[in-house]
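Take a specimen:
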Amino acid sequence: MWLGILLFVISYRLMKIIKSNLHSELPSADVPDDWLWACLKAVEDRYQCIFDITFTVVDLIEMSELNGQYRGKYQPTNVLSFYYDTNNAVIVGEVFFCPHIIQQESISDGIALKDHYTHLIFHSLLHILGYTHQDDSNRFLMENEEVFLLKLFGIQNPYEKFIESN
């Protein structure tokens, strides 16, 4: 499964992007390094922090295993994020993407794939910073932060359609 994994280390800061040849749906053509840096920098600037984040692409089976092991939900999900440590003021964490789920969501929700990844990157980084959506008040705070960050990139509020449909 890990055959053909490529590790790209972007030099000026410690961010690693792990891409699998089998699951290249996090395409460099649609998600260029400068775009990933822009997402990361937007959160760093807003929260005056520095991240050391590893982004990993996994298949449905591995995501199901991770989700089961860490959340007790034995099914795939779009993204999982983990805070590991703060080392010399650098926040260390890892984000796992499941491109199959993300593409399905993008198509079913009518959202551009790049916009959906942008949202999920912000969502996962906010989790690493301690935001949750366990209850309505925390969910409201987290969603407002996501919407603020997405707006910086000219991306529409992804929660509006849920408000309109209720």
Q: What stands out?
A: The domain at 5-165 is CATH 3.40.390.30 (Collagenase (Catalytic Domain)). The first helix runs from residue 33 to 47. Residues 1-30 have pLDDT under 50 and may be disordered. The beta strands are 5-10, 15-20, 50-57, 79-87, 90-97.
